Amino acid sequence: MTRDIIWSFLFVAACGSSSHQNTGGDDDTHVDAAGEDAPPDSSVSRSDIAAFPLKSVQGGIAYTASVKIGTQVFDLDTDTGSTTLGVAASACTTCNVTPEYTPGATATDQHTTCSSTYADNTGWKAENYSDNVSFDGETSNVTMRFGAIQSQTSFFQGFDQGIIGFAGDAIALAGTDSIVSKRMGAGEPGEFAFQLCAGDGKLWMGGYDPAATASALQVSPMVPLSIFQPFYEVTIQSAKLGSASVAISGDGVADTGTSILVLPATQAKALTTAIQNSAGFKATFPNVKLAGGQCFDPGNLTNAQIDAALPPFTITLPKAGGGTFDLTMPATQSYLLLQSDATQTAMCYAVTSINTPGVPIIIGDTILRSWVTVFDLTGKTIGFAPQKGCAVPPAAASARRPAFDPSYTPHWRIRGQWQ
Predict the structure, then answer these.
(1) β strands within 282-390, DSSP E
(2) Would the CATH topology of 3-20+47-203 be identical to that of 211-400?
(3) Which of 99, 110, 233, 243 is most buried per CB count within 10 Å?
């Protein structure tokens, strides 16, 4: 099955004209998300690296960056699984967000349109414009083409005014540009990185800050990019729950635009069964039957108590230069996600499946937030280092939690782009 068929479940687009950690070291290295024994790599120069804050949505199901378009600033969902920037336009009668993009003196209508539909059944239709684009606080910008959203279907849910993609030109919608390619064309190194905390986060363009890592970066070869494989993927060689092997393997997209871990159905079932049958889960949550997207009552347990009781999740990746390394994550930073606001608290199972045969694994935010994740387009690698410095969210303190609401359903994002 070709990738255009495989990936059509993630994104359907139509466009037309408009009348209007350690880069070296021994093989079989182990990296623990909670470990802080090794010093950070201080050899990386940070003189040309720009850092921008991210806002976390609902404890980490999405992350937005403040982006300046023309003279206006917007909160845009950050997505390494897509390319095209889309922002709510003032002409949109169904967007119902503030602010909305109003073309100004630096804007040019491209007189083309695009539309998109995502796997989470959200989507938008847009008129393509070009304008000056930068992250808020920068003194320079790039001129790029993007979608000014004219109508939408359940795409806006109160936390953003659009989306900004970090993938390459291959999956940019016709008539739009890649901000990464534009910035590289202006002389920026082809490297960017994310730190996704429960309560906030950080984006680096041009590199990353090793001071945000607890140990040195481990890098894995990026699956070669091609017309049939345009995504930032690594190859998962194997996986474990605790010390027990779980039948999970294959290419996986490192996708900040997807909230959770998405697996082929047989692999999702294998992981779910392993968690459900583990002694720690049975003892801690004896009456919970796991299912994708299901939420349950965490009681008075903190994340730390849950992580101490439940088995960690480990994936094994090939290491650039040979050998392998492990990424080991506690339960609440891999397959469980605590969701809490002023009215409700729930622990949600952050694993789901896609029934389309051949669909690769999607490594979403619940996995990535254990790490500083570095996308090196020049070196053709994706690097992982245990993050440090993330603030503990208020929801981690059981005394401040609201009661569990059985009707609570998480609103996962599963996004990607194919043309």
Answers:
(1) 295-296, 313-318, 324-329, 336-340, 345-349, 351-354, 361-363, 371-376, 381-386
(2) yes
(3) 233
The radius of gyration of the chain from alpha carbons, rounded to an integer in Å, stands at: 21
In angstroms, rounded to a whole number, what is the distance separating the alpha carbons of residues 399 and 240? 33
Strand 336-340: give its sheet, edge to edge: 295-296, 345-349, 336-340
SS3 content of the chain, % helix, strand, coil (to 5): 15, 40, 45
**Alpha-carbon torsion (217, 196, 350, 154), positive or negative:** negative
CATH 1.25.40.20 fits 3-20+47-203, yes or no: no
Note the pTM of the prediction, 2 decimals: 0.88
pLDDT tens figures, 317-371 = 999 999 999 999 999 999 999 887 666 788 999 999 876 655 679 999 999 999 9
Which residue in this structure is represented by tokens 């970066």?
217
The most distant pair of C-alpha atoms in the chain lies apart, rounded to whole Å, by 64
Check: CB of residue 129 under 8 Å from CB of residue 114: no
Which class does domain 211-400 fall in?
Answer: mainly beta
Task: Return the half-sphere exposure (C-beta side, CA atoms, 13 A cut-off) of residue 238.
Answer: 11
Interval 169-192: pLDDT, tens: 988 998 999 999 999 999 999 999
Residue type, 54: L
**Confidence band, pLDDT 50/70/90 cuts, at residue 12:** very low
Distance of alpha carbon 201 from alpha carbon 81, whole angstroms: 18
